[in-house]
Amino acid sequence: EAIKLFVSEKAPVENIALVTFSHYITGEYPFGTTADQIALAADSIKANGMTNMYDALVHSLGKFAKIPGEINAIILMSDGLDSYPADIASIEEYIGGPAKEKGVTIYAIGFGGDADSSYLNTFAAVTGGAYLYADEPSADSGTNQLGEFFSGLRAQVLNQYEVTFKAVDTLSYV
């Protein structure tokens, strides 16, 4: 439901991709996939108890290129623990480093009581992103939390501007 909520409010300037995973990548819907196709893919996601967030993020980061003026983000959603957790040094080197090089910020959302908030927050923190714990996305409170989080994320991302100027040297005597 969280994915469908996110894509239902897609702005025309947004380009969304989806990577689904368990202990390996189970589905890939590249940039340019329509919101309807992503929503349909979201209906096929099943929790099976095996989760490999670290490898899914490393894989997903490989899909990005550093393009001037483009703002890139990954939204990692999980309802559990990573079955193959990585240490902080590996997260910093293989996720934090490439994310910064490519201008990608990771936002993580944990659902339910089994979500590993500390681990999810680490992924977000190494890229300057944010972490949100939400109740189950089908609950009214979870949907409201997610709607507010997604709205805030879109406002932050879509309203970033880069200002450049050339100053006149007023300190030198010519």
Unreliable parts = none
Instruction: Kindly provide the radius of gyration, computed on alpha-carbon positions and rounded to a whole number of angstroms.
Output: 18 Å
Cα end-to-end separation: 65 Å
For the biggest sheet, the summary is: 3 strands, parallel
- Approximately what portion of the residues adopt beta-strand conformation? 15-25%
Q: Sketch the topology as an H/E string, one letter per element.
A: HEEHHEHEHEH
Helical residues, percent: 25-40%
The strand line-up of the biggest sheet is 3-4-5
Please tell me what the overall shape is: globular
The assigned structural class equals alpha/beta
Number of helical elements: 6
How many E strands?
Answer: 5
- Average pLDDT level: 82
General description of the model:
This protein is of the alpha/beta class and 174 residues long. Helices cover 39% and strands 16% of the residues. The chain contains 6 helices and 5 strands. The strands form 2 sheets. It has a 3-stranded parallel sheet with strand order 3-4-5, sandwiched between helices. Strands 1-2 form a two-stranded antiparallel ribbon. Helix 4 (88-102) links the parallel strand 3 and strand 4. Helix 1 (2-8) runs antiparallel to helix 2 (35-43) and helix 3 (53-61) runs parallel beside helix 4. The longest helix is centred in the last third of the chain and has 19 residues, at 140-158. The protein is globular.
